[in-house]
Amino acid sequence: MRRLKILVTVLAITASASVWAGSKVYTIHTNSFDCDFCVYDLEEKFLEMKGVKDFEVDIDGLLFVKTDGSVNLTEAYVKKMLLDNGFDFKGMTVKTNEQ
User: Fold this and answer.
1) How far is CA 45 from CA 40, 65, 76, 84, 88, in A?
2) Helix (H/G/I), strand (E/B), else coil: 85
3) Cβ(78)–Cβ(92) under 8 Å?
4) Which of 7, 41, 82, 91 could crosslink 87 through cysteines, CB 3.0-4.6 Å?
């Protein structure tokens, strides 16, 4: 029984590591934020997307969207989302976590 528990634990760790191996972090540049509610609306919109796991904000106009790698945020999509919510789109970079 103990060996079975160890095997299940090892398999769970291996599976979770493979899911996060292809994760992506999108750094989105926009104008600085004056309103917490505006940022909250953006956060809700991003977190509603399948594959988006975390959303962080730097008050100077940086958004960090962390995904599990199953979603591909395009510049056109992000630009439209920002413009629809009253923000400028000043660029975006993507960092892939491939281990």
Assistant:
1) 9, 11, 16, 11, 16
2) coil
3) yes
4) 82
Domain boundaries, the chain: 22-97
pLDDT, one tens digit for every residue, the chain (99 residues): 555 444 334 444 444 444 445 799 999 999 888 777 878 888 999 999 999 999 999 888 999 999 998 999 999 999 999 999 889 999 999 998 864
Can you say whether residue 57 is alpha, beta or left, with left for phi > 0 and alpha for psi between -120 and 50 degrees? beta
CB under 8 Å to 50, separation ≥6 — which residues? 70, 71
Closest CA to 27 of 89, 86, 85: 89
Which residue is it, tokens 């959303």? Answer: 55
Integer Cα distance of 18 and 69 in angstroms:
11
Q: Please state which CATH number belongs to domain 22-97.
A: 3.30.70.100
